[in-house]
Amino acid sequence: MLFILLSACSSAPVTDSPPAVDSTTDTAPPDTNTPDTGQPEACGPEGSPGAASPPLLSAAALLADAAPDAPLDSAAFVAADGADDPLHTLEGWLTITPGAGARTVYHAEYWLTEDDQQAPLPEISGEFVQCGRDLLPTARGRQLTDDAYWDILLSPGRIWSNPHDAGRSRVALPFALSLKSVNCVFNGMLTFLYDGTTTSQVRWQVTQETCHLMKLDAWGQGAATVVPGVGAAAEVARSDFIAERAARPEVRPFAQLAVDHPGVDLSALDAGLSLPDLSARGLLVDDVLYLDTCRTRHGDHPFCADLILPSFSLAKTAYTSLGLAAMAQEFDADPYARTLSELLGADGSWGAVTVENLLDMSTGHYLVDTQADPDVPGFYGSLDLAGRLDATFALPQRSAPGERVVYLTPNSQVAAAAMDAHLADVGASETDSFAYVVDRVLRPAGVTPDSFQSLRTWEDGGQNNGTGFGGYGMWFTPHGITALGAFMQRGGDGVLHPERLAETLFQTDDYGAQMSYYSYRYNNGMWGYPITGCDQRVPILFGISGITVLLAPNGLVYFAFTDSQSYPVSSVLTQLDAIRPLCE
User: Fold this and answer.
1) Could you say which DSSP state residue 318 is in?
2) Which residue in 46, 234, 496, 522 could disulfide with 129, CB within 3.0 to 4.6 Å?
3) Strands 521-523 and 526-530, sheet pairing
4) For residues 341 and 354, what is the distance between their CA atoms, to the nearest angstrom?
5) Sign of torsion, CA 218 220 225 226?
6) Which residues contact 427 (CB under 8 A, 6 or more apart)?
7) H/E element holding 414?
8) Residue 541: which of 557, 555, 553 has the closest Cα?
9) Where are the domains of the chain?
10) How big is the CA angle at 446 (ends 580 and 489), to the nearest 5 degrees?
């Protein structure tokens, strides 16, 4: 069982501790409601307050010991109408100790033990810097912990004041839990009061996930501490956040799509989806992102645009496919044509397999030609690279390389290892292929920093310290996946090899090898679906659990993240065609 395996792995502490600081902040309560914080002008103030209504979660409830009996409505983590800018500056190292809490498990796969299902939250900690009402972690993306089950992702939150809080400022922070070696994500919220020196109790809850393996609510009340003072990373995080916010497209409600584009039938876009299981959905039309609400079991998530979402197999495109296209553009040596004999010392029938065969899922090695991921003996149970390569190379040859597509995630792990070897061989300054993708693809594309970490192999008794998984194990936000899709639609801004990107987007005659899956084709880490009415295919990024990203030939980018394992395509394409014809 996966979780038993994780528990047996090294538990050496890997969490950060409060950094040595080069300055401290004055945390004494200010004399006015609009203090001079010394923050950049872009940080605020945000506007004129009114007569604020009382918070849904009262100050008294946060100032007293409590054992809540149910999760709150998500509106409790949003500033009430008329709330003002914060009375205090919270900049420093924040630590949340959740305590025991309570839990309701709605679904768990048969192999998940009771301990797996009831694993408590780990300590949550990180350095934060303020930008007006925005409260920013200086390290976004996945943070390793010494917990046996969970790692943490921190996202930008909010801080404000309300006269009903008796001179304190109120904080709301989103966070996400990620399993140690599985790409599932469980999204949560926490809130507390801060008076510049001390904090109240912390109310927290986890009420939403993108995970077909387990569904649960967890909630409780714990403790928080703030160590004032920030290091050099703080100002970088603040300036990066300001730039990121400025570059984002305009966001409008999803329902506004039918108003701005009267030919669109919103109900048709719901077809084939289980809306209660929908985590996030959006459509980018030119410079406008029509963003649906992010559903939880207790109201809409208040930080929808920054909700943490798993990649699952989207990583096959975002990591291996785009990474190789960037290498082909930067270096003279063609990474696609290189063999596993050259790069990894593979022998026998695997030695002649090329990196492009791996990317196309056409290595010729499989058990049966309809084989899919669950049936690769020894692969998913191994966390070290050697074990994963051995499991993959044990697959027998059934056809010639390049002849037939058989979709197997282990091929992407081999591709990631081959990419590392290729970078070393060409003398690249960065020889870690995932770090290369972050610097050469994700950053130029404007993808948010939440995507700058990956699941990796576990080497030498450590955890997630080896080669990127390649085929899964990344994280995105709605804004991040939108930026990546727009980047590809623009042609990669000179970062990606144009011919290789054109192949990936099915803009050439290369549709990949034969595939036994309806009318789909698979090429360069991308699915292609035929468009009725013209000889074109729409490029699609799929991920298990129910993740679909469409890069429509009319320039639109559609995404839906769900855990109902539903993947509507044709009904969506009909509505995208109503906005702008798919066939030229």
Assistant:
1) I
2) 234
3) antiparallel
4) 9
5) positive
6) none
7) helix 410-425
8) 557
9) 2-245, 312-530
10) 30
Question: What b/e readout covers 6-43, taking b as 16+ CB neighbours within 10 angstroms?
Answer: beeeeeeebbeebbebeeebebeebeeeebebebeeeb
What distance in Å separates the CA atoms of residue 476 and residue 288, rounded to the nearest whole number? 19
Q: Which fold has domain 312-530?
A: Beta-lactamase (3.40.710)
- What is the rounded CA–CA span in Å between residue 575 and residue 502? 24
**299, 56 Cβ separation under 8 angstroms:** no
Backbone angles phi, psi at 567, to 5 degrees: -135, 65
| Type of residue at 228 | P
pTM for this predicted structure:
0.93
Q: Is the peptide bond before 45 cis (omega within 30 degrees of 0)?
A: yes
**Consecutive 10-residue averages of pLDDT for the chain (584 residues):** 32 36 34 56 86 94 94 97 95 96 96 93 97 97 95 98 96 97 96 97 98 96 96 96 97 98 97 95 98 98 98 98 98 98 97 98 94 88 97 97 96 98 98 98 98 98 96 98 98 98 95 85 95 92 96 97 93 97 90
What secondary structure does DSSP assign to 420-465, as a single string? HHHHHHTT-S---HHHHHIIIIIHHHT--GGGS---B---TT-SS-
